[in-house]
Design a protein that fits this description.
By secondary structure, the chain is an all-alpha fold. The protein has one domain. The protein has five helices and no strands. The longest helix is centred in the middle third of the chain and has 22 residues. The radius of gyration is 15 Å and the shape is globular. The structure holds heme C (3 copies). One heme C (HEC) binds next to helix 1, helix 2, helix 3 and helix 4.
């Protein structure tokens, strides 16, 4: 029910954005455009389940090389401005999450920036 309410809110917000600015979504700055792992509609609805399922799989079975990887999301969705999915309303994960008022605690442990391997950072 909560999920439904959040999705309805976002759908309303998205159509408001279309009407106001001719832009099809709230400020979502995708640094590396290309193909997401699924359509935007499916991603909006299921990314939380994909990530959680994948987290459980990794933690329990040691599976690593799936198409659903948190760092994979970050590589594409980190912003050009600060290289991160967090930081402010223009950052992909944080932007929509503060919009939808859904808390995102993943980054207390996971790093939010692209290029973490090159930088030798935590994962
Ligand atoms: C190869 C680059 C790439 C990867 C990897 C990727 N995405 Fe995407 N994602 C995109 C692009 C580009 C779009 C916009 C697609 C469009 O508008 O047609 C998008 C769209 C989305 C949307 C919908 C945004 C909206 O409201 O329009 C969500 C949510 C999303 N991605 C989450 C994720 C998550 C979570 C992951 C990791 C499991 C991920 N993406 C992995 C490139 C990527
Ligand atoms: C287009 C808006 C949008 C974008 C972009 C977005 N999210 Fe979400 N996310 C949501 C909404 C709405 C929910 C809540 C759905 C629910 O309550 O089940 C959610 C829920 C989640 C959850 C589950 C939270 C919980 O405690 O149950 C995780 C994990 C998550 N998102 C991760 C991410 C990550 C990581 C990114 C960036 C790669 C991202 N999201 C980008 C809208 C978005
Ligand atoms: C208390 C610390 C902690 C928190 C909070 C946390 N994780 Fe993790 N996560 C880990 C650890 C540790 C691993 C295993 C890393 C490894 O195997 O190298 C992991 C692995 C993962 C993986 C598989 C590896 C990858 O990079 O794709 C995913 C996906 C993932 N977590 C998603 C999430 C999401 C989504 C959230 C927020 C809902 C979250 N995690 C919150 C500690 C945490």
């Amino acid at each position: 029910m909560l999920r439904l309410a959040a999705l309805v809110l976002i759908t309303l917000a998205l159509s408001a954005a279309v009407n106001a600015a001719g832009v099809p979504r709230p400020v979502i700055d995708i640094a590396k455009p290309g193909q997401c792992i699924d359509t935007p509609e499916v991603m909006r609805r299921t990314h939380m389940d994909l990530l959680k399922h994948q987290r459980d799989k990794t933690m329990r079975e040691g599976e690593r090389h799936s198409k659903v990887s948190l760092n994979g999301c970050i590589e594409c969705h980190a912003s050009k401005q600060n290289g991160s999915v967090l930081g402010g309303p223009d950052n992909f994960c944080q932007g929509c999450h503060s919009y939808a008022a859904v808390k995102l605690d993943c980054f207390e442990c996971h790093q939010p920036k692209a290029g973490y391997k090159a930088a030798g950072g935590k994962r």
